[in-house]
From TrEMBL:
It holds the Pfam family adh_short_C2. This is 3-oxoacyl-ACP reductase. Its EC number is 1.1.1.100. SUPFAM superfamilies: NAD(P)-binding Rossmann-fold domains. It comes from Citricoccus muralis. PANTHER family: 3-OXOACYL-[ACYL-CARRIER-PROTEIN] REDUCTASE [NADH], SHORT-CHAIN DEHYDROGENASES/REDUCTASES FAMILY MEMBER. Keywords: Oxidoreductase.
Amino acid sequence: MSPKDSYSQFVNNPLGAKVASTLGLPQPVALRRYTPGEALATGPVLVIGESEGAHTIAGWLVDHRVDVRRDPGLKEKFSAILVVLDEAQRPEEVSAPLRTAGAALRRLASCGRVIVVARDPESTDTAAPAYRATHRGIAGATRSMAQEMRRGATANGILLADGVSASSASALGAVRFLLSGRSAYVSGQFVRVGSDAGAVPADHARPLAGKVAVVTGAARGIGASIINSLHRDGAQVVGIDVPAAGDQLAAVVNRLNGTALQLDITADDAGQRIIEHCRDRYGRLDIVVHNAGITRDKLLANMDAARWDSVIAVNLASQLRMNEAFLADRGATVSEQLRIATLASTSGIAGNRGQSNYAMSKAGVMGMTEATAPLLASTGGSMNAVAPGFIETEMTAKIPVATREVARRLNSLRQGGKPEDVAETIAFLVSDEAAGINGQTLRVCGQAIMGA
Ligand code: NAD
């Protein structure tokens, strides 16, 4: 159970809403979260754009029984607005489509979605300044739009690398993810699709069917949520945690028909022990989620070696070592299409006072992800990181009340995320549908100001 956000509960009753509105206080709404089998969209979807990509996405939505509009009209409410700008060459070309989207925003439903599809300015070979300016500019506009969203709505982008079409599995998979309740706490972010790799699952309610997934730090918090989501999505699950958390771990995995491995991941042979466990129980290993992590906060001036070293050992060095073992075993117990996800943090992006050790470990995780991704891609695998912002867990419940309340509200959704928000993003990234997304760090932070 996530700790309570009493303020959100207060403003979500009629009297509280009136008080908050009168005083101009933030009014967080209960976010729409994922339920398996949910429709692709909760109401009509407006698709703006005339490119081949726009027609492809509109056609795909129609094929999935979504009520698509290519013109905003005057009255209708939209559950989502897609702006497809993948062929834009010059800044002048995006003015009309973005302003059309803007004019339709007043009619965006509660917890609605804006998705902007453009080219990835960081992956392009095109040196033309106008082209780079256009696509970087679109990203800037999208971030600002996300800050203007109301009533739990979000705005995100999908950035396609050169040569990747809007019809690729991961581009459409990203549209599905961003439309769904899985992305409830993702806003102002960009899903970068780097290749045409990816396979559409036979059953969208169980995209991980047939896979064996390992989650470290699974006894509680975000890890317990991740293992839950992976199991619900069809995977057989292995939970790992330190022996001291053995009872809690057993309680989590027993509910999911999974197996537990009591293991300190800093052990030199941790990777090998995981492979052996999976070989003996399941004969395979397809997905690894490096979730276990610790904080030992102190200003650097007061930092002792034990605090620094333990954080680096658990959060970063252990993952580097385990990944070496997993990569070396590919084709045996470990699948050639191994998918790894890891937990970064917005502290690793922006830094955070008192967390130089933690920020080093989490920024390091992002570097590791970038460098490991191509190694895995050579056999069809992938690795991505998720950077959570303020998530309601036992860890954040211990933050002093004033600091906690500030951290909770300083984002575009005016509330903390839930462990399941992180879990749903990870479940998407480790699915075969997301294979074209590789080496990325995706933030699940409600567009927190920290790390902006
Ligand atoms: P948590 O402390 O509630 O859970 C972490 C789990 O990891 C625990 O069960 C712990 O026993 C286990 N663990 C710790 N050291 C281990 C080791 N050496 N070997 C095996 N297991 C070990 O933490 P959480 O809040 O659920 O965070 C999970 C991950 O998300 C961490 O990597 C954390 O840095 C990251 N994160 C959390 C937040 C947040 O707001 N809670 C924000 C950003 C990032």
